[in-house]
Amino acid sequence: MAGTSSGIVAGLTAAALGAVGFLAYRAQATVPAGLAGRPGASASAASPAAKAPRDRRNPTALPSASGKGERVVYSVDDDRVWLVEEHEHVARTFRVRPGSMDPAVGTYWVSSRSNAATGTDGTPVEHIVRFSSVDGVAIGFSAAVGDGAQTAVDPSVKTGGIREDRADGNAMWNFATIGVKVVVIR
User: Fold this and answer.
1) Whether the Cβ atoms of residue 130 and residue 140 lie closer than 8 Å to each other
2) How far is it between the farthest Cα atoms of the chain?
3) 5-14, 109-118, 164-173: lowest mean pLDDT where?
4) pLDDT digits (tens, 9 = 90+) for 81-102
5) Quick check: 130 and 110 in contact, CB under 8 A?
6) Pick from 109, 174, 105: which is nearest to 140 by CA?
7) How far is CA 138 from CA 135, 144, 174, in A?
8) Could you write out the three-class secondary structure of the chain?
9) I want to staple 185 with a disulfide (CB 3.0 to 4.6 A). Which of 52, 69, 93, 116 is the partner?
10) Are the C-beta atoms of residues 184 and 74 closer than 8 Å to each other?
């Protein structure tokens, strides 16, 4: 009897691990259609203000109206990002260089990631974290590969890359996995 029950337990354990593995794979591979790249907060979440209040004495301080919980906060007016852990702890904040197209103010979720690619401006980039699109152009964070030199953004070319330094790009890559919230504020 003991051999039978341990075999049943082992079988159930294997089935449970298989189910958990499948669900983890699905969570990494897709974001629910209702969440991917769509602005708008849920009714229970605080929506970002058109212009979130800032502490002018400390311009790197997390804006008060930037949501709650684990998230990436991106200010299109200040060209700044905050990586916010649970309990409102700012793990890192840094300046970015936006492309020619800005996402609308709202709440998004990381919908795809790529280790390396070529940006719409022809620059080789790494650690691409996408969360939206505007007029068919993907919007996401990335770091230029190479010497880090940033050419001026050509406003006539639609670019959605929000460029980070390589160290900041590594931090973003480690923090912003599929499904992590991205809050865009003014």
Assistant:
1) yes
2) 75
3) 5-14
4) 999 999 999 999 999 999 999 9
5) yes
6) 109
7) 9, 16, 20
8) CHHHHHHHHHHHHHHHHHHHHHHHHHHHHCCCCCCCCCCCCCCCCCCCCCCCCCCCCCCCCCCCCCCCCCEEEEECCCCEEEEECHHHCEEEEEECECCCCCCCCEEEECCEEEEEEECCCCCEEEEEEEEEEECCEEEEEEEECCCCCCCCCCCCCCCCEEEECHHHHHHHHHHCCCCCEEEEEC
9) 52
10) yes
CATH label, 33-185, candidates 3.30.450.20, 2.40.440.10, 3.30.428.10, 3.40.250.10? 2.40.440.10
CA distance 155 to 53: 29
- Identity at 1, one-letter amino acid code: M
pLDDT tens readout for residues 5-51:
555 544 444 444 343 343 333 333 334 344 444 433 332 334 444 45
Query: What amino acid occupies position 59?
Result: P
Round to whole Å and give the CA distance between 67 and 51. 13
At residue 92, what is the residue type?
R
Please, which residues have CB within 8 angstroms of residue 130's CB and are 6 or more apart in sequence? 110, 111, 112, 113, 114, 138, 139, 140
